[in-house]
Design goal:
Layout lengths: L1 H77 L4 H8 L6 H16 L4 E8 L4 E4 L2 E4 H8 L1 E2 L4 H5 L8 E3 L3 E5 L2 E10 L9 E8 H9 L8 E6 L5 E2 L13 H4 L5 E8 L2 E8 L8 E8 H7 L1 H38 L13 H19 L1 H9 L2 H13 L9 H4 L8 E11 L1 H6 L2 H20 L3 E6 L4 E8 L8 H12 L6 E7 L3 E2 H14 L2 E4 L2 E2 L14 H12 L3 H17 L4 H21 L11 H9 L3 H21 L6 H10 L7 H7 L4 H12 L3 H19 L4 H7 L5 H12 L3 H7 L9
Antiparallel strand pairs: 1-2, 1-8, 2-3, 4-6, 5-7, 6-7, 7-8, 9-10, 9-13, 11-12, 12-13, 14-16, 14-17, 14-18, 15-16, 17-19, 19-20
Amino acid sequence: MNNQFKSVKRFFHDKFFLRVYAYIILPILIVFIFLMFTVFSYNGRHMSLLKNSYLTKLESICYESETSLRNVSIMINMLSDNESFISAATQTVQTDIATDNNISKIFAQLKQNNNLIDSIILYNRAINTVYSNSGKFNAIGFFTNDYYYAEYKKNYWDSFKMSLPNETPLAPTIVNASGKQRIVIPIVFTNVCRDSSNSIVIVNVNLSQIISTANDKKLTNNSRFLVMNNQNHNIFNENNDFKSNLSGNFFDEIAYNSSSVFNSTVDGKKTLVMTYSPKNAVLNYSYIVLVPYSDINNRVSQITFILIISILVLSIVLLTSYFNTKSIYTPIENLVSLFGNEEAPSDKKGGTDANIFNLLHNSIQKTLDNNRALSNKMQKTLPALQERCIINFLNSNEYYTPEDSGDTFSIDFKYEYFCSIVIKLIPTEEFYNTYTNKDYNTIKSGIHDIILSVFSEKFETYVFPSEIDTLYVLLNFSEKSSGDSLDKIISEIQSIMNADKDYMTLKIGIGRIYPHLDGLKKSHQEAKNSLFTVDGLAHIKLNESSSDKFILKMSDETLLFNLLIVARTNEAKKLIEKILKDNAIRNISDGARTQLYIQIFNVVFKVMRMKSINYDPERKGDLNIITEIIRLQPTDIYETLINYIDIINSCTDSANTKIDIQAVTLYIEENLNSELCLENIADNFKTTPKYLSKFFKNKLGINFTDYLANLRINKAKVILTETEKPINEIFKELGFNNRNTFIRAFKKVTGLTPSEFRKITPSSSADKH
């Protein structure tokens, strides 16, 4: 016997202890491994996200700058049709004051509409006169005092000549003007109009502004945006004081006409470099961002700190779990010693381990059988376990005899007959709009107490919460006829709960009365199979002719959204009437109609948010607003919906005067291949053709017809230069009605036919800066 119990102790030391310790340690190790994986994944994802974000920003900055400069080029070329501009560019004598003022006004307007322009200059070399957005000046005084180029003196401009193309960007230079210094890129336009070889136009692009705009979008504190001249590798920052030491491979790594990402050393620090060089750009420059690795490491320092803390905590947990494991198995070891005088049972199939477990099982079972008081005490301290035992019994498929009752439960049922009732709680939508989850648990507990109280007045009653929303009620009778008063009690519960029927729907199933435990199981199965629905415990009949589902096609929902976006509210109202009528024909239920209205209101509110219409001044939130609306009568709900649509219409009308000229010009550029006219554009921007025509003239200084014609011709120049497309395709692509109309318009602007222009213009492959 002593040898056997030595084996028991050895078993606990060698196996049980290690098993319990493993159960504690395994989850900790899994969490630690997952945490390390998360840290490394986060680091890699952060680096990838940073690269993609910066490359996207570089491309966006480049696109915005190039688009802005191309618009400037278009505007300058269109000035050849302006009488004041032609007069100032071609005169060999001084112009009058009206012409001078008109030129300054035109240049000032162009500068105001483009924040990248520092100044615009028309230099008529024949009369030694400069016209700018600031006024009219003598050329000597202007280039010496008013607008001093560090790299380009007056004699440079006097001798400046250029063949096709008629615009060329020069190298950046510092400019002194009005007591301030900045970096500009002069773009020189020659042949600005016929018979004006003595005049040039200089558009000074503010390079500092381009870099400053980029720096406003940086993602880390020490990131720097730079611009590099691809011809001479000169690098510029916002203040033109870039003097950093670059590693030898810096310029070799830059991919021209594309984007590139590489590591380099800048001022002795490891730096992530990202560049973007556009193709066929007005400015032959590369856009660069430098991100020190110290910035990148700072972003992941917090999660690295968490990893270090986790390692320390894990070490403490490992030590603590070791001693806790000993505390867990020591009482069990003592329990084995307590039964040490019992004879160990034999097990022919098993070995020592089986004998040990049989010894523990039989000894504990014998002690419990001999000590009923101890058994009752343990069961009273574990009521939840006993409830679960009863629930498992009711839902099991095992057969029980009457004699099994005393062995199955610690509950001694007083009587022989049983009846089972199953109650399922189903909160309504109104309940969720009114109460929280915490309130629901409180209400569920209250219903439990009400049911227990009412049934306990007549019967021996046991109420067990089974699933999340289900109660099992067991009634114990002295005889079968004792259940005759059940209907009366159900009616009493109905009167108590009827006031809450809008908040709670219940399903109740009642089984018949049977004797013994097998009868209890049978009654319980009948109760589960006979669940019927009541609202607030009040019996109702469902209308079988009505439908609980509404119909709102995705196409109709999308059409409604599009109609509201463009403020075609009358058509939107007709569509809503059609949707409501189609669902009324289907005889949908009140609940389904409510859900349909909720869906429509969601679309309306989405449009109002996109249009920045304040429909919620009290900041209630969409959910609370819609909840208040659907409590109204159906006619009032419909009127409220129409009122919101009218608000969209009125707010759209009031916004007609707020037109963005860049949005208008962008729309025109994107739709050159369509039949564009003033009426179509005005309709798209929700205004009148008359207002748009006047607005166009005030903003750009030319009328709409001339702008559209010149834009198409300039686009044609690009296509003729950069592609081999036949003229029959080009005129269709640009929206001309026929070939002859296109040729006449092209020759009117350029003095050449498209074919002649293509012959004398170098192709894009040979014309790179």
